[in-house]
Amino acid sequence: MTQTPARPETTAVDGGAERRGRPPVIEASALSKRFGARPALREVSLTARAGELVAIIGPNGAGKTTLLSILAGEARADSGRVSRPPEEVGWVPQQAALYGRLTVAENLRFFARLERCDDVAEAVERMLAQTGLAERAGDRVETLSGGNRQRVNVAIGLLADPEVLLLDEPSTALDPRQRERLWEFLGGLVDGGTAIIYSTHNVQEAERHAHRVLVLADGEVVYTGSPRELEATVGASGLGFEAAFVEFLRRRGH
Amino acid sequence: MRWLLLKDLQILRRSPLLVALLVIYPIVVAVLIGLALSRGPEKPRVAFLNQVPAGSEVIRLGGEEVDTSRYSQQLFDAVDPVRVDSREEARELVRNGDVLGALIIPSDIAFKLQSGLEPATVEVLYNADDPVKAQLVRDTIKSQVQDANAALTRKLTGVALGYLDLVVSGGNSSFLGRDFAVLGLGPAERILAQARASLPPSSPARGQIQQVVDFARGARENLDLSDEVLGSVAEPIRVDARVVEGPGSTGLSSFAVALAVTVSLMFVTLLLAAGTLALEREENVFRRLVRGLVSRTALLGEKIGLAAACSLLVALAMLAGLALFVELDWSRAPLWVAAAAAGALGFAAMGAAIGALAREVRAASLLAFMVSLPVAFVALVPSGTVSGAVYDTTRIVSALFPFDPALTALRAALDGSGGMLLPLAHLLVLTLVFGAAARLGLRRFG
Hints:
heterodimer; A: alpha/beta; 3-stranded antiparallel sheet; 36% helix; B: alpha/beta; 4-stranded mixed sheet; two-stranded antiparallel sheet; elongated
């Protein structure tokens, strides 16, 4: 993730009008999901455009992971539809989904073959270069640090060069330096036109990097817009985004 | 699917302990069983004290000489004798555990056998620290003494029959060094008949002599039947064994080989199938795979195929190893492969079901191990050792798992005892049932 330049913090809100003019690369409409008697998602709709970074935030149990799992094809919605098939979407689960006894390169090669990449060797080399793991290509994944494992995890999600990348709490368990490098890398992808949708518990991270946030609470979308617009909606611009977010949920009874 | 197979083989290659276990396990089992089958059981070490004076081993029974040392030799063939010089030495060896038991032949045994006045007695000492060994010594010595008893009984019966023949037919005999003539019932009857004929018809002695003649004839005729009666006494029960049901031609060696291979096949296949499937979830990869890259059914098929193929190789290696010790009919090798492959598929499907249920490698391995042992034990319960209802239950339970049909198929493949089609069809059904159960388990696997 050292291959992409760092973006200024203002990038998240730069070019908003131009981005909003692009066609959506993924659309989900009226997704509902129940686990037994408990509703996990209620009529949730979502769009993301090329080069857009969308953060899904909300309290625990709000349905963030369920929504991403449905978009990624890991779970099925009871109703509603998603415009893209799972095979066309890159997916990075929260916990690194890798084979510990295979090397970094072997993991990438295995998934590249399953993704039916045209040139497997080129795809592996590209991801090793992009993630800065070329020197660790021959190391078994079980010997890597948590940050490096997450890099491989992200790399696998990007092997097929997808237009849409989904990440479930990607920075969890990373130290600040690793987190910073991850966002630098993801920023480079966004600049290249990839649409990224990610869930996070870290509200400051959403404020800092996302062009748009989607607030979920009890399986419902209670807000969608930029972080600044949320602050303006609450009328607490002096308190900062995190305080505005908490106040927003409080007023909604969450 | 080939990429999944390649990946799993790479992971197996990176698990040296597991691979070593897979390679070493069948070799060790094959060597152990081969040695056990080819060497036979060890003879128990038994101290032997013979207090019979030298030259007194030969006794005379009814004019025949019987060498009692012949019976000692029979015993020595069944045990590993340690000759001792005194009762104390024998007792000490038993107490120390140097021998499992001691057999003491008293000095008066020849006299008692010869006189027939009272039964001869031998003394057995054994160490009861180990009940299994103590039982082995008791059974071995008891069996040999019974053989000697039977032989002596036959000899004594022959002597008794000789005496009876003397009583019936008459002749010469000797007792305590003195020769004497015996008239016999037959000649006595003839003499009496002649004597009766020489008496006047009115003589009252004719009737009395006729009574004695009738008695002599009756006694002679009845004693003629005594040969068969005494023969029955000498060997009251004879054994005439016939097979009523089951593969009677299965040798102990074939059964042991089939059992060893089936047990190994079961352990290796169950552990591999359950472990490799559970690993997909433990590494968090399962959901990534099945979201469009691989179908759940294909993943399951790959695990079952991999486990079955690996364990089939192990089973065939075991058979080849065992063939060094036990004579196996290599012309039936294609049948071995068919039986082992069908068994491997059944166990692999069962292992996949266990892996889908346990969802974690350690839990899956433990569950596979815990299920294996009772399944094998239940299948090996012989009829007649438990009540009818319990036995019927064990048969029903055995039919639900692949062990019993796999063992039956392999026995049939090894020596042609029984048909193979039924157990193979049984295994096919179980493969489908366990495969379906595993597929069902994968719906909630991720």
